[in-house]
Amino acid sequence: MNDIKRIIRRKLLISFLVFSVLMLIIGSISIYIIVTMQENIDEIFENHEPFLSLLTNDYLLINDSYSQTLHFLLTTDYSTRQQIR
Residue ranges per domain, the chain? Predict the structure, then answer.
């Protein structure tokens, strides 16, 4: 009976150690992949930031033009329409 308990205890210990090693390997691979992705994202923003700022500026101009057009269409007073124009 003691031999069976010792064998079971040894197998549980070995399986726990194998599981721990596998978790360490998976964790280190995950950290490496996350760091690589962050570096790639930083590189993309460094290279394409002017383009993104141009898109943002265009979006703001379009939004401003849209609001002015709505204001023009919704205004009933002729003099105000002439000022907006």
Answer: 2-84
